[in-house]
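Archive record:
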Amino acid sequence: MSLAQWLPLALVCLLGAMSPGPSLAVVLRHSVAGGAPAGVLCALAHGVGIFVWAMLMISGLGALLVTQPAWFDALRIAGALFLLYIGARALMAPPDEAPSTEVSGGPKVGHRAAGEGLLIALSNPKIAIFFAALFSQFIRPGAALSEQLLIATTAAGIDALWYALVAVSLSRFGARRSWRPQLNLLNKVFGAILIAIAAVVVWSVMVPG
């Protein structure tokens, strides 16, 4: 793949990563609650999930999933349930919970951030739809494995870097410090957002069209 072919791919992947959604909400929550380390771990794990989706779509397995309505709806429901779980946990977090005391070096919160980052990517069927449209434009018939890996790595790397930049920016520019006193309120806001997204997904499955 030439540089002229790669640059449009990278731009589209960047625009896709920058679009707001549940992934951004999860990265923001961990970044505010646990600082840059937790946010970056969440971002990197999300990138791994993107790589998995990209390789599935390139191999054709992901496309098969998208074309099977029952399987695809099951994935959407699973994703909605995961969002509901994260949102409910955020809403019910006790006011005196202080994730920052665990994170700045705490493996427990780091593992939680990474786990949620990975699962939020794997359980989001919109990523499959995005890659189905994207790869139809950039993958040539009979493309070599090296080219396929380059495309998947580009998508995953740009995604991880974007969300890591978001996480680091919150810490670098003092945003986390100013938001930390309102962490309980932010937990409630993030939780409500994730639950609302889950409800919209379930509604779209139950009442198609």
